[in-house]
Amino acid sequence: MSYALSDFSKQLTKNCIPPRPLRLGARLVNEMDAQAHWERVYGTKTPNEMSWFRPHLETSLFLIERIAGHRSASIIDVGGGESTLVDDLTCRGYRDVTVLDISRTAIEHAKRRLGSASQQVAWLVADITDARLPMHSYDVWHDRAVFHFLTEPTQRLAYVRQVSSAVKPGGHVIVGAFGPEGPSKCSGLDVIRYDADSLHAEFGARFRLMQISKELHHTPFGTTQQFLYCHCIVKSSFSPAQTTGR
Q1: Rounded to an integer, what distance in angstroms lies between the CA atom of residue 197 and that of residue 221?
Q2: What's the pTM value of the predicted model, to 2 decimals?
Q3: Which tens digits make up the pLDDT trace of 33-83?
Q4: What does DSSP assign to residue 145?
Q5: Which member of 95, 100, 174, 221 lies 3.0 to 4.6 Å from 124 by CB, making a disulfide possible if both were Cys?
C-alpha cells in the first residue's frame, strides 16, 4: 500500500449499545481523574491558551468534505471540546452532527458560542472508551487529538471497539494524532506518538487504510506540533477477530 503523505495539505490555505461494564479500581479512578483533569483545563483556560487550538480545522474540513459530499451524512466529532469544527460543519449545511467530549465545561462553552445553532447539534458528555453510542449510525468518525492520550492498551482496545460498533459498514474514520516528531506530553499528560504503520495497526484488519497525511500545526504560542492523520474505511464484511485492533 502506498501512503499519500501530506498530498492534500498542499490544497489547504439510533439503537444504543450498552457500555462495557466498568471494572472498579484503577480503571474507574483513572477515568474520574481524566474527567477532572479536562474539566480543570477547560474551566481555567481560554481556547487560545491551549496548544492544540486552531481557529479552523482546515485539514479535518478538507477530509470530511471530500468523503462526505452529502450534507445528510451523520458525523461524530470525538473530543470536539471547544473546537470550531462543529461551527464550520453546520455553516456548510451538515445537518446530522454529534459532538462528544469528556468535559461538560467544554461542551457548554461550545453551545454558548454557537448560540441558537447549537440546537442543530447532538451533544454527548462521555468518556469515549465507555460511551453509549448508537450502533452502525455514523458515516464519519472524526477525532483530532484524543487517541494519542490513550496510553493504556485497554483504553485503545475499547476505543477501537467503539469505532467498530458505531460507524456504519463502509463508513469513514479520520483520526489525527501526534506524529513521530510531535510532543511527548500535552496538557501535562503523556501521549503516544505514531508513524503511519503504528497508527493504522492500532485499528486492525477491519479498517482499510485510504490515506495517511501529515500536518504541521502552529500553536497559539508560536511553536509547532506534528500531526498524523489516518483515514480508513470500515470494511463491510469482517470476522470478530478483526475488531480487536492490534
Answers
A1: 30
A2: 0.83
A3: 888 988 998 889 988 888 878 999 999 999 999 999 999 999 999 999 899
A4: S
A5: 100
